[in-house]
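Field reference: sequence -> structure
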Amino acid sequence: MLATVLIALLAGAATVGARAASTDGTLRVCADPQNMPFSNEKGEGFENKLVDVIAGKLDLHVVYTWLPQVVGHVATLPDDTDCDILMGYAQGTGMIEDTNPYYRTSYVLIYRQNDKSLAGVESLADERLKSKTIGILARTPPVSIMAMNGLMANARSFEVMGDRSSGDAAAAVIAAVASGEIDAGILWGPLGGYYAQAAKVPLALVPLVKEKAGPATIYGITMGVRPNEPEWKHKLNKLIAENQADINVMLSEYNVPLLDENGNLIKTSTAER
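Structure field:
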């Protein structure tokens, strides 16, 4: 939740009750109520769709606890929250127990496809970026990498203001790139891919998988679960493994850049059409 952010945005920590998962026919889910393409109260996000798949496979009724995410802060749950899964949890944070990743993705560099001056850029270490105005969401990991590569002099920071979601800020970055107001933008992959689809001009999305220093740019995204419930975790891992191909197709419908364990882009049947 990172995203929903990100990683810090997407990360969550849960302190929950001792009720065994899903013993009463209910799947209790913690997710963001206003954070497309991840989730919303209308059930339109890909995390909502994945929850529906899990609930359908296990014949459970879904009940949400809405947990708004804040850029730059780690989400926490109150002690009396009783959720079976926390959606969009970044693997490896070590804050709570989590499942195997159901997708891997990275931050992406976004620029206009007709901008030949940026053709072939694969890393923020590319010297061509030093003369470019680059949009970035404040307090996200790539800010540090940009600073290390001397890219902050021309950077433009976009803030998530008040009760607006990270999607609003991401859409603003995309609009600024498309209009030529800025030369490029850096966004969390699912945000960049989703909002780039609606851009007025074709945009190139380059997964930032070749950075040599600084914070990680690639993350496996999992579901957070309560500790000491190995059977529930195993059940979720089994569902992820058995449905991975369908999950990938679903994510590709939201234009999420999917990566394998080596950081290579995965093509799905939907992406190839």
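Note: The helical segments are 46-58, 142-148, 166-179, 189-196, 230-242, 244-252, 269-272.
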